[in-house]
Amino acid sequence: MATAELAGKHLVLGMTGGIACYKIAELTRLLTKAGATVQVVMTEAATQFITPVTMQALSGRPVYTSQWDARVPNNMAHIDLSREADAIVIAPASTDFLAKLAHGMADDLLSTLCVARDCPLLVVPAMNRQMWQNPATQRNVTQLRADGIEVLGPDSGPQACGETGDGRMLEAVATFEAIASFFSPKILSGRRVLLTAGPTFEPLDPVRGITNRSSGKMGFALARAAQQAGAEVHLVAGPVALETPWGVFREDVQTAQQMHDAVMRSVADADIFIGVAAVADWRVDHASEQKIKKTAERALPTFTFVENPDILASVAKLPHPPFTVGFAAESGDLELHGEEKRVRKNVPLLIGNLGPLTFGMDDNEVILFEAAGATKLPRADKQTLARALIVEIARRLPDTSLIR
Ligand code: CTP
């Protein structure tokens, strides 16, 4: 999970009334774990859903709920609390609070703080679907966006009231990622990134198949880092049990052929293609439509394999390929095989994993292979490494003057 952007940041976390207040306990924990300081300010209504004592314990700072709080030496809580802030985040942001913000109202500590701020304001709406769809709410949200306020979410799905639709607050992890994304340098702004991630699954029959140990973590970390760097991200994922990074478009596939077809359908729009998936090189020719049964004679089944398309090489072969990046997991002599594989796949950049045992692990060490030579990056957790790789890729884009 992204953390570097939030280390040392000071956030005012404003809570308004709504059942989604329970998510803010977890959000506060994630933010403080990432090194941010969190000053919680609650409206009267928010204190009906979760207590200031809970929020104080989680944030490690006194919680403010009233404009008339005598703890602030000059009695100017509405000015002082946000002066050092890098941003104010309102989560959950109720229908009423969005309306207040849109009209510049200042009738309690939190709304006054927002009007008196000199830092960015992010709101994370949480409400019933009809409240969200109400034309007045939609007008207010349009106004907030026009005023330069970041609106994060809302999500869609089952709601506390029993209905289903748009309006529920983003989950704590997604809110955390969206806040981290807000603070990330936008070195891939305006770029479209297509990635593959995870293993593929090649069926033998309806219940069995061949797959591999790729967890998808590196590919998902790269998708997240690219999104946070401002790119529009399309992630084609094999079967993995990972949450979709916030703001990323995900397409799920099973087989190498399906992954190939999904990539080929979208690659014309991509500026960058990153093949992180561990794609099966072979599939069974004519997988059985029925479950293969043991016979009375106990004869062993035999399978004939055919080669799968090489997705990376197919992309690199296009007349106008995007900037194409490959990955390589080798079981030995990476330095030798890495550059050989880069040349064979005809890609400008190939990222070699040092040791195949990084499958499923949270950290990794890689070597970048390119025509100019090989460069080793320091061992790091996969998300830190993903951010470093995105910087390396952005630097190598043919026409980028964005970072120097
Ligand atoms: N790759 C791909 N399609 C395939 C096989 C591999 O797109 N059918 C991509 C992977 O996503 C990775 C790169 O090619 O970016 C290298 O994958 P790897 O499995 O290391 O290479 P192979 O070509 O399969 O070579 P080998 O197994 O012989 O080492």
TrEMBL record:
Region (Phosphopantothenoylcysteine decarboxylase): 1-192
One Pfam family it belongs to: Flavoprotein
Pathway assigned in UniProt: Cofactor biosynthesis; coenzyme A biosynthesis; CoA from (R)-pantothenate: step 2/5; Cofactor biosynthesis; coenzyme A biosynthesis; CoA from (R)-pantothenate: step 3/5
Binding site for CTP: D281, K291, P309, D310, I311, L312, F327, K341, K345
Residue ranges constituting the Flavoprotein domain according to the UniProt record: 9-175
Note on cofactor: Binds 1 FMN per subunit.
SUPFAM superfamilies registered for this protein in UniProt: CoaB-like (SSF102645), Homo-oligomeric flavin-containing Cys decarboxylases, HFCD (SSF52507)
Any one GO CC term of the record: phosphopantothenoylcysteine decarboxylase complex
Cofactor: FMN; Mg(2+)
Keyword Nucleus: no
DNA/pantothenate metabolism flavoprotein C-terminal domain ranges (all copies): 188-395
Reaction equations catalysed: N-[(R)-4-phosphopantothenoyl]-L-cysteine + H(+) = (R)-4'-phosphopantetheine + CO2; (R)-4'-phosphopantothenate + L-cysteine + CTP = N-[(R)-4-phosphopantothenoyl]-L-cysteine + CMP + diphosphate + H(+)
Keywords attached to this entry: Decarboxylase, Flavoprotein, FMN, Ligase, Lyase, Magnesium, Metal-binding, Multifunctional enzyme
Molecular function as annotated in GO: FMN binding; metal ion binding; phosphopantothenate--cysteine ligase activity; phosphopantothenoylcysteine decarboxylase activity
The protein's Enzyme Commission number: 4.1.1.36, 6.3.2.5
Keyword Flavoprotein assigned: yes
Region ranges (Phosphopantothenate--cysteine ligase): 193-404
InterPro entries tied to this protein: CoaB-like_sf, CoaBC, DNA/pantothenate-metab_flavo_C, Flavin_trans-like, Flavoprotein
GO biological process, one term: coenzyme A biosynthetic process
Entries under Gene3D superfamilies matching the protein: CoaB-like, Flavin prenyltransferase-like
Active site per UniProt: C161
Family: In the N-terminal section; belongs to the HFCD (homo-oligomeric flavin containing Cys decarboxylase) superfamily.
Job description of the protein: Catalyzes two sequential steps in the biosynthesis of coenzyme A. In the first step cysteine is conjugated to 4'-phosphopantothenate to form 4-phosphopantothenoylcysteine. In the second step the latter compound is decarboxylated to form 4'-phosphopantotheine. Catalyzes two steps in the biosynthesis of coenzyme A. In the first step cysteine is conjugated to 4'-phosphopantothenate to form 4-phosphopantothenoylcysteine, in the latter compound is decarboxylated to form 4'-phosphopantotheine.
Protein name per the record: Coenzyme A biosynthesis bifunctional protein CoaBC
Organism: Paraburkholderia elongata
Taxonomic classification: Bacteria, Pseudomonadati, Pseudomonadota, Betaproteobacteria, Burkholderiales
